Amino acid sequence: MENHDFAWAAGFFDGEGWANRSGRGVQSRINQAGVDGIPEVLTKFRRIVGVGRIKGPVIVEGKQPLYFWEATSRPDLVQVVERIGPWLCSVKRAQFARTLDGPLPAQVWPGSMSEELAWAGGFFDGEGSTCLDKHRTHADFFVPVLYVPQSAASGIAPELLRLQSAVGLGTISGLRKSKPPRKPYRRWRVFTIEKVFRALHMLWPFIGNVKREQARRAMQIVLAQPDLVRGNPAFGVSGARYCLRGHDKWNAPIRPFKGRGKNEEDPMNHLRQCLACVREAAQARRNKKRRR
Prior knowledge:
Blueprint: H1 3-16, E1 17-22, E2 25-33, H2 40-49, E3 53-58, E4 66-71, H3 74-84, H4 90-100, H5 113-127, E5 129-134, E6 142-150, H6 158-167, E7 171-172, E8 186-190, H7 193-203, H8 209-223, H9 275-291
Antiparallel strand pairs: 1-2, 2-4, 3-4, 5-6, 6-8, 7-8
Helix pairs in contact: 1-2, 1-5, 5-6
């Protein structure tokens, strides 16, 4: 086994696994649903850690068949920790330390970029998805989104921060409420076709066939859509000399545009709108207030 395998298994356990004491013994478990038999990610995890058993399916009406990997002896959990412990995040390391009542192997992350991406691939295999959101302004159009939710006792879950750092893309949302008994959570998301492609390109060598096929289906739908026209045709052509009302934007008898804040990064912004129209609209708003 290579470090990339252990890093992937640690990421998968960070997303789906848990460890705790059970009666007089110890127990560790990973649940995973699968409609086509035992999920390949459970088989892969079992092969990497070398211990434990895969059980199931557990059939519940209205839900997908549930399979799970389980280890119930102290020697098995010790071997799991020896193999993936150095790459685990703080929450699951604390679970193993409490369960085994002893020190864990030293943490080795953040490691190389490829090892961090392997961890991210395992975490995405456990918690992530590629989905489609409706376009905010164009009906019947969809935008791709990479989505990973995670709850934390306080602040931002360290797993989300690590995922964002490993991939180098994505935003983490504010706290979102969930229906009881689920805990409030935050979301790591990647938007726009270009950024989703970049993120998938980095994760692709490390994610399983289920997540790959999910991503393929989503991107096929997005790429089958016609390209959207940039801008609003009602505003005229960006950078044109004359606006739709006939004003000469290049020689408008008003003082030059001076940006504030982020607008300073675009020195040509005064050519992207008609300042004469802006002045007339502002005057109309002032007159409307006076008439009230």
